[in-house]
Specification:
By secondary structure, the chain is an alpha/beta fold. A seven-stranded parallel beta sheet has the order 3-2-1-4-5-6-7, with helices on both faces. Strands 10-9-8-11-12-13 form a six-stranded parallel beta sheet, with helices on both faces. The model is unreliable at 1-5 (pLDDT under 50).
């Protein structure tokens, strides 16, 4: 009889062994199948089942011998049929063991199926999936067992799409950075039956490796794969443009941003798409005319959106509006206009947030009454710091002393570290060591707000402002009763923020007229440090072909800050100072920046041979050491240096700054005043040029300034982190007292 036929003996055996199998009694089941083979040696299914029972007991050699015995003495067609029957038996048991959570047993069974049919793609996918669940997956397996080559093969048919997607997800979760993971993803695209399923899997992964692991180049490559499924998807195009920009592929970033804008529909969506264009142009640097057109487009789009006042924007679209005005201060020093638009955007986003997060907003508002928070004076205030920059970043370098010198007897401090879930950063680790509780977070603003609320934070301090939309959304939800913006940027104009930390210099006296937040002026400075780590200089005059008697001017800013009007003033200084050179450094498209400055120089009658363009260096400490090559640093305007200014002052290098009205145009001014010098502070374009020329021509004055700066390290507020921390903590206590009294 045929092997598929069942006698009464075989049927009875199957019923009994099925029960034994469920009980895990493989020994007794094997005995029954041995008897069945003795009674019916021609029924092949007995061999398959006996071998399986032996395998489940760990007797692999005996199992293989039994299967080979069953496959013996058959014609080729019969052997092929019997092999299929054996595989079906093994697959059924592998699935059962997997469902029971016995992943190791299921994996072992799959290996035997592979020996019988090494090109069964679905079995191989099951094997990979099981190894990820066992956490034994290393990334080598995809290539070792031929999965990628099989997926690329035109003869591969019958791929289980759902299985493929599940295994792909497991692989990306387990080994996101292994080269074979990308190759596997790419090979899988040929078998995608439902593009939406593929995109729903890939997009969260791409965001994870870009924003949490800071692997933007790899994220760009994966996003390119996603675009194969949906070539005109504006979301993918916008994301890809951002990745190109962050990995310094500036031309690709600009081109892709423009494609994103063309593919985008909807007013709020176009605002964000146009922001990506502005970001790409400013990041590259030198695209000033195009940027100006994009900025005027942004103003027009925002005016229409504000007039329309939509109230049903979904979260993803609404949150992005927070950053839509980011580049306005780089273009013009008109804070009244810039902040008015920023405030209108803030009000619109707040309105929509309170619609889609109504329950959470109401919960936070009602959760903590001032009447319940009148504790005795001995109570420690709970301060929460929210930021994605407490790491190797300008904010991370500057904020250290508030953590170093905090008074633990009066303040309990928590850190909410956005986008750090997968990061490995030494400075971030330092921050974590300095607080009572730290959270390494993803980018979910609602989860973050909930943690802050559950921790009963009294005062929440945002260090990001509108540099990160997720931080804005947390602040808009208002999980803490008192909320403050400090350090990271200008005020955000999010309506739920109570205070903005400033000082006597960084904002003019009239600023409160147009700020929505209450400006809280610290008595001397809004930032102070005890100093900076300084490495070994890597720049030398002879390597730059500059003589020892020449005057070196320097500007070291990212592409965002290079404004043509200020560049013209800088060239006028170079032209007026004989034997002077201008060193230009910054994160930007080097060809674009070079073209920009050469054109400005030539228009002012300065030869390109007096310009030098510097590459980025490996570390912050080396960058600071290299500042010492400059005789004079020429600051940018309308957006000054901040960290770079403090580093310049710490290195004792004279600086020329143009003071304006907005926060971004007064950073260097407050830092110079708090370092004890006024030489180089200009209130007009003419004064900027005059100071630049004077400092270039007067080496004695430069030496005097340098000496004053070095002496100021012992006395100036800018270099007294402990005193500054006491002033910040006093401000926190006063803010809390105001809050408590307001509830009485």
């Amino acid at each position: 009889m045929l092997s598929s036929d069942l006698s009464a003996v075989g049927f009875d055996c199957q019923q009994k062994t099925a029960q034994l199998l469920l009980q895990g009694n493989y020994v007794q089941a094997a005995k029954l199948y041995e008897q069945a083979i003795e009674d019916e040696p021609s029924v092949k299914s007995h061999y398959w089942q006996l071998g399986l029972m032996l395998l489940l007991q760990g007797q692999e050699a005996e199992a293989q011998t039994t299967w080979l015995l069953g496959l013996a003495e058959g014609e080729s067609e019969e052997i092929e049929q019997w092999s299929e029957e054996l595989i079906e038996v093994l697959q059924t048991e592998a699935d059962r063991q997997r469902d029971l959570g016995n992943y190791a047993v299921a994996w072992a069974i799959r290996q035997h199926i592979r020996e019988i049919n090494p090109t069964d793609i679905n079995n191989l996918l099951h094997s990979i999936g099981l190894s990820t669940m066992l956490e034994t997956y290393t990334g080598e397996e995809l290539a070792d067992i031929g999965v990628i080559e099989l997926l690329k093969s035109e003869q591969t048919n019958g791929v289980d799409f759902e299985l493929l997607m599940q295994v792909l997800k497991n692989v990306l979760d387990r080994a996101p950075f292994y080269p074979s993971s990308f190759d596997f993803t790419e090979a899988s695209t040929a078998h995608v039956k439902d593009p939406l399923t593929f995109l729903r899997l890939l997009i969260p992964f791409v965001n994870k490796i870009a924003f949490l692991a800071k692997q933007v180049e790899l994220a760009a490559r994966f996003t390119e794969l996603a675009l194969r499924m949906s070539p005109k998807d504006p979301e993918l195009l916008g994301t890809l443009s951002t990745f190109y920009q962050d990995s310094r592929e500036y031309t690709k970033g600009i081109e892709t941003a423009k494609l994103c804008y063309l593919a985008t529909e909807g007013l709020a969506q176009k605002v964000h798409a146009n922001f990506i264009i502005m970001r790409s142009l400013m990041g590259a640097g030198g695209y000033w005319d195009e940027f100006c057109l994009a900025l005027e487009t942004q103003k027009s789009l925002l005016a229409s959106l504000i007039e329309e006042q939509p109230t049903s924007l979904v979260q993803g679209i609404n949150v992005r509006l927070f950053v839509s005005v980011f580049f306005f201060p780089y273009f013009q020093d008109i804070p009244q206009e810039n902040i008015k638009i920023r405030s209108q955007v803030g009000q619109l986003t707040q309105l929509n947030l309170e619609n889609y997060a109504k329950e959470k907003v109401e919960k936070y508002r009602q959760g903590r009454s001032p009447l319940l928070k009148i504790e005795p004076p001995s109570k420690r205030l709970k301060i929460g710091y929210l930021s994605h920059c407490l790491r190797s970043h300008s904010v991370g370098w500057l904020a250290r002393w508030v953590f170093e010198y905090r008074d633990p007897s009066r303040f309990e401090v928590n850190a909410y570290l956005f986008g750090s879930e997968m990061s490995r950063d030494k400075l971030e680790d330092w921050y974590i060591s300095k607080v009572d509780k730290a959270y390494k977070l993803g980018l979910d603003s609602h989860d973050t707000a909930e943690k802050i609320y559950e921790d009963e934070i009294d005062i929440l301090v945002d260090l990001d402002s509108i540099t990160l939309s997720n931080s804005c959304e947390v602040m808009a939800l208002k999980p803490a009763p008192v909320q403050v913006t400090w350090l990271g940027w200008d005020a955000s104009s999010v309506p739920t923020i109570d205070y903005y930390i400033a000082d006597p210099y960084v904002l003019p006296e009239s600023a409160q007229e147009y700020y929505t937040e209450k400006i809280w002026r610290l008595p001397q400075t809004y930032i102070a440090v005890d100093g900076f780590e300084v490495g070994v200089p890597t720049l030398r005059r002879d390597h730059l072909d500059i003589g020892s008697d020449a005057v070196i001017y320097l500007s070291a800013q990212r592409g965002y800050k290079y404004h043509p009007d200020t560049a013209r003033l800088q060239m006028q200084i170079i032209k007026a100072v004989p034997n002077s050179y201008f060193l230009i450094k910054g994160m930007a498209d080097q060809e674009s920046i070079k073209k920009f400055f050469v054109e400005v120089a030539e228009s002012e009658g300065v030869g390109a041979d007096r310009l030098r363009f510097l590459a980025l260096v490996g570390s912050e400490a080396d960058h600071r050491a290299n500042l010492g090559i400059a005789d004079v640093v020429l600051d940018t305007y309308p957006y000054n240096g901040a960290t770079t200014t403090m580093e310049t002052l710490w290195m004792g290098v004279p600086i020329v700054t143009r003071v304006g009205e907005q926060f971004a145009a007064r950073n260097s001014y407050t830092m110079m005043m708090n370092a004890g010098i006024s030489e180089g502070i200009a209130w007009t374009d003419e004064e900027y040029v005059e100071w630049g020329i004077r400092l270039g021509k007067d080496p004695v004055l430069r030496q005097q300034i340098s000496w004053k700066l070095r002496q100021s390290r012992q006395t100036a507020p800018l270099w007294n982190g402990k005193q500054f921390t006491r002033e910040m903590e006093k401000a926190y206590e006063q803010m809390w007292q105001i809050y408590v009294e307001a509830g009485n």
